[in-house]
Amino acid sequence: DVLLVQLPEQAAAGSKACANTGELKGVSSRDLEDGRYALHLFAVYDGHGGASVAEHCSKHLHEQLQRIVGLHADERKRQDNAILSSQEVILEHQPSEPAAGASGAAEATEPGSKPKEVQGPEQEPEPEPELIQMALTQAFLATDKELEQKQGATDMGTTAVVSLLGRRHLWVANAGDSRAVVARRSGALTLSSDHKANRKDEAVRVEKAGGFIWWNRVMGELAISRAIGDHKLRPYVIADPEITRLMRSHDDQLLLLASDGLWDVITSDDACKIAISRFESELQASKTVKEALSTVASVLTKMALSRGSHDNITVVVVDMRSPPAV
Predict the structure, then answer these.
(1) What is the reported pTM?
(2) If you write DSSP's letter for every residue of 224-238 in order, what string do you get?
(3) Average of pLDDT values for 73-99?
(4) What totals of helices (H) and strands (E) does the chain contain, helices first?
(5) CA 192 to CA 93: how far, in whole Å?
(6) Is residue 97 part of a domain?
(7) Residues 176/158, Cβ–Cβ less than 8 Å
(8) What's 291's domain CATH number?
């Protein structure tokens, strides 16, 4: 089955916004049910109009993701079983003896060819990118629908930045202005684009839906153009996430997920430089990885407060130094 368990090598700091971390175990690109592959989940939800929507997402969005992946894994398994059954029927009609001149040795290979590699638990392929992208989108929309049925049309909502970390790739799904950034020695790599109401393409989308932007707010009310919840502002504010997939690199050091309370006063580049520098100094001082990550999250939060941030601040820091699979 698809399971969520706690992942140790991460730390969070801050207040008011909600953080969620865990490990999504699925595990083969074929059916996500029998294997040893793992996707690690991290998320930040920054609520507005109240904390209930952010709290609901922190408790249930990963459950929706788990359910959706499981449903599609079941369907893929049924399809694979049907294909195997049809192949067995064909094989029953094949001659039992090899044709004249043909070799019956199953292990034979062409000269210079590479023998087929048997995959072990650590060599399982990743799930198809299309499956992960579809599952993330549907999880956002299903959670949003669940809230609408529960609360009706209210002005309560939350941003959502959700990441899935695999051996080869990192996926980020985002709705709102919380942000995901990978800290590399070569610089910051921002993996999400803030959904501000004054973002040109978002303003065009809102206007095409019949709405307007006034004082950099959707319908003069909300500063972000995408969120889970905020059903009072539909169809102008939507829950559909934008999704980015990144091939992991040996240059990856840390993953930073944070609410806009951090990014409003600290640039992505500065945050990454500070994070890497402090992380390395903590490790050199014989601190554990967990302790070092916790210190980095705390330092960034306190720095945002010292620079005058009055918004919700939550920072999640994840160790990405494990070498990516090749």
Answers:
(1) 0.79
(2) BSB-EE-GGGTTTSB
(3) 55
(4) 6, 16
(5) 54
(6) no
(7) yes
(8) 3.60.40.10
